[in-house]
Specification:
NAD(P)-bd_dom_sf; 3-OHacyl-CoA_DH_NAD-bd; NAD+ binding; 2 domains; two-stranded antiparallel ribbon; 10 strands; about 300 residues; about 45% helix; Rossmann fold; 3-hydroxybutyryl-CoA dehydrogenase activity
């Protein structure tokens, strides 16, 4: 299968890597050459780290890299694609524009997919001449480690599109969870509900950051506590999802004030170096509120959540 990934950021690069590792030919496209190069470098770094850890054979790394072509031209990226996965930022207008543009460059049987974590796939499909060939393929970060892909069936998604998507997810060695297109789908809706309640507990003084996370990591066997996971996802991303769900589903998804304050201050989590934790070299080193840490602050390392 020839796969085109639109957007060379964290998720786009991860999806491209997973597809190439599974043996698919991949075009990774972004609007500027520097973005494409950053995405390709990220893939190379991840695969090389896998080699160093003995998880990836050097030959498999080289073969995967050879299967990925980085491009900026949309027509060239879409040429011959059997599956196009949009992985641009979570903005409805931007996603509709990108999907509408790429539809004009793919063959009639090509399947289109969005990696959106919360936006309506049915609304995204309304920008297309053939909305029946669009669905959601919601991957989780880091893509190469996470075993789940949420397959989101829009109102007009046809069976052929769905079968192609199922086969692609299976080819990656991942599990497809099929959900109906509804606000937040299954994973984002449940994830932000837990994360928002953890933030409310923190801001009301129920417990410190590390202790709240430890309660879920050690008490419920979660691989990562909800506050650290919020940092990994990005506080701005989590805020956007909560505001979207509040509009769609009501006040139970009202964003906590502590989350809003941190976003306004530019404390967006791992990507900015501080959120609910302080991050150094990609690792959470201590809670930003100064309340201890130790094993509780690091127990969830190695598993990250949705975009």
């Amino acid at each position: 299968m020839r796969v085109t990934v639109l957007g060379a950021g964290t998720m786009g690069a991860g999806i491209a890597q997973a597809a190439a590792t599974a043996g698919h030919d991949v075009a990774l496209r972004d609007v500027e050459e520097s973005y494409v190069e950053e995405g390709l470098d990220r893939i190379d770094d991840t695969l090389s780290e896998g080699v160093e850890r003995g998880k990836v054979d050097p030959e498999a790394r080289d073969a995967a890299l050879d299967r990925i072509t980085g491009v900026t031209d949309l027509a060239a990226a879409a040429d011959g694609a059997d599956l196009v996965i949009e992985a641009v930022p979570e903005d409805m207008d931007l996603k509709r524009e990108v999907l509408g543009d790429v539809e004009g460059h793919v063959h009639a049987d090509a399947v289109l997919a969005s990696n959106t974590s919360a936006l309506s796939v049915t609304e995204l499909a309304s920008a297309l001449d053939r909305p029946e060939r669009l669905l959601g393929l919601h991957f989780f970060n880091p893509v190469h480690l996470m075993g789940l892909v949420e397959v989101v069936v829009a109102e007009r998604t046809d069976e052929t599109t769905l079968e192609t998507a199922r086969g692609f997810v299976e080819s990656l060695g991942k599990t497809a969870v099929e959900v109906r297109d509804s606000p937040g789908f299954a994973s984002s809706r449940l994830g932000v509900a837990l994360g928002a309640e953890a933030i409310r507990m923190y801001e009301s003084g129920v417990a410190g950051v590390a202790d709240i996370d430890a309660a879920m990591e050690l008490g419920y066997n979660h691989p990562m506590g909800p506050l650290k996971l919020t940092d990994v996802i990005g506080l701005d991303v989590r805020l956007d999802v909560l505001e979207h769900l509040r509009e769609e589903l009501g006040e139970r998804f009202r964003p906590p004030q502590a989350l809003k304050r941190k976003v306004r201050a530019g404390k967006l989590g791992k990507k900015t170096g501080e959120g609910f934790y302080v991050w150094e070299d990609g690792e959470a080193v201590r809670p930003a509120d100064g309340t201890g840490g130790g094993d509780a602050a690091s127990a969830g390392d190695g598993a990250e959540g949705p975009r």
